């Protein structure tokens, strides 16, 4: 079934194997949502190997555009092979990768990028493009690590990090909708961290009753996800509460997940999820695709 707004799944490609894998993942998402896929290759003048050196004579606007068009054609072919029933189009755009992807994301239902790349997506691993796109895109952003897009988990499990923040609530809604399409189950994971000992304090800290705190946190998680559970009665739901560090807990749980969903900003156990250490670790180490929801 085609979704009412009809916005395409946009995938950024640069000719790398990872971006081709991202294109295939986008094709599957397009099939699930009944949406077309829009392939985008952003190209720019390469940085000369020596500062202030003149560019090689074969670097011309025409040659750069031709190379980008070839990348688009290959990715379009990969989408058609992965999901022949999904409509697909492509375009090569001149500019800075993150800036251009953010700009065109206004007309997309989702942006998909590979975890690493070259050309327009160089340095994706360190978050230069991924973090900016995830922070400013006008729609959900999915980062696909090498090999993650090809994983098959049956029955599907969509793992979502929850902390009660507005962004977390949006992530929970996204997770429920994904399972409504895929089948399987939602697993909501919440991490709480024990209070740190007072610095240079001679007082012996009062340790929390872990069983009591865990039970209380579990009740909060149930309250956070209840509205979505009520609106999606066909979706199976499981929840987990842990005192492990948020990134480590999510990465470990993602070993059995089809997709990991996180909010762009949160509080509690998931503070700074977008631009902080948690988001960096999850995007770089989760064994499944990661969706960042604003």
What does this protein look like?
This protein is α/β, with parallel strands linked by helices and 294 residues long. It has two domains: 9-150, 3-Layer(aba) Sandwich (Rossmann fold), CATH 3.40.50; 157-195 and 207-293, 3-Layer(aba) Sandwich (Rossmann fold), CATH 3.40.50. 37% of the residues lie in helices and 19% in strands. It is built from eight helices and ten strands. It has a ten-stranded mixed beta sheet with strand order 3-2-1-4-5-10-9-6-7-8, with helices on both faces. Helix 3 runs parallel beside helix 4 (130-136) and helix 5 crosses helix 6 (210-231). The longest helix has 22 residues, at 61-82. It is elongated. 47% of the residues are buried. Mean pLDDT is 84; it is low at 119-127 and 271-275.
Q: Counting H and I runs of at least 4 residues, what is the number of helices? A: 8
The beta-strand count equals 10
Principal-axis shape: elongated
Radius of gyration: 21 Å
Mean pLDDT: 84
**What distance lies between the first and last C-alpha atoms, to the nearest angstrom?**
25 Å
> What fraction strand?
15-25%
Task: Supply the CATH architecture of the largest domain.
Answer: 3-Layer(aba) Sandwich
Q: Mind telling me the CATH superfamily name of the largest domain?
A: HUPs
The oligomeric state is single chain
Number of domains: 2
What structural category do the secondary elements indicate?
Answer: alpha/beta
Task: Using the coordinates above, name the CATH class of the largest domain.
Answer: Alpha Beta
Provide the succession of SSEs. EHEHEHEHEEHEHEHEHE
Largest sheet: 10 strands, mixed
The main sheet orders its strands as 3-2-1-4-5-10-9-6-7-8
CATH topology of the largest domain: Rossmann fold
Catalogue the unreliable spans: 119-127, 271-275
Fraction of helical residues: 25-40%
């Amino acid at each position: 079934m085609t979704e009412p707004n009809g916005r395409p799944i946009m995938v950024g490609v640069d000719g790398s194997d990872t971006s081709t894998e991202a294109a295939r993942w986008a094709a599957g998402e397009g099939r699930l949502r009944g949406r077309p896929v829009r392939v985008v290759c952003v190209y720019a003048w390469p940085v000369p190997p020596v500062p202030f050196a003149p560019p090689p004579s074969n670097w011309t606007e025409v040659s750069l555009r031709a190379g980008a068009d070839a990348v688009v054609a290959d990715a379009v072919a990969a989408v058609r092979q992965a999901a022949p029933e999904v409509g697909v189009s492509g375009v090569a755009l001149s500019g800075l990768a993150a800036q251009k992807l953010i700009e065109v994301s206004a007309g997309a239902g989702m942006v998909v990028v590979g975890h690493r790349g070259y050309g327009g997506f160089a340095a994706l691993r360190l978050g230069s493009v991924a973090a900016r796109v995830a922070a400013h895109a006008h729609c959900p952003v999915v980062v696909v690590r090498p090999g993650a897009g090809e994983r098959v988990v049956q029955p599907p499990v969509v793992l979502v990090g929850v902390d009660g923040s507005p962004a977390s609530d949006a992530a929970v809604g996204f997770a429920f909708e994904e399972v409504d399409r895929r089948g399987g189950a939602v697993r909501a994971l919440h991490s709480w961290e024990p209070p740190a000992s007072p610095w240079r304090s001679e007082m012996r800290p009062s340790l929390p009753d872990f069983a009591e705190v865990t039970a209380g946190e579990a009740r909060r998680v149930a309250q956070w996800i209840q509205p979505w559970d009520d609106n999606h009665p066909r979706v199976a739901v499981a929840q987990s509460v842990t005192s492990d560090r948020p990134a480590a807990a999510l990465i470990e749980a993602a070993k059995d997940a089809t997709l990991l969903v996180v909010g762009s900003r949160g509080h509690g156990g998931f503070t700074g999820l977008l631009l902080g250490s948690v988001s960096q670790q999850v995007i770089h180490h989760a064994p499944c695709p990661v969706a960042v929801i604003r």
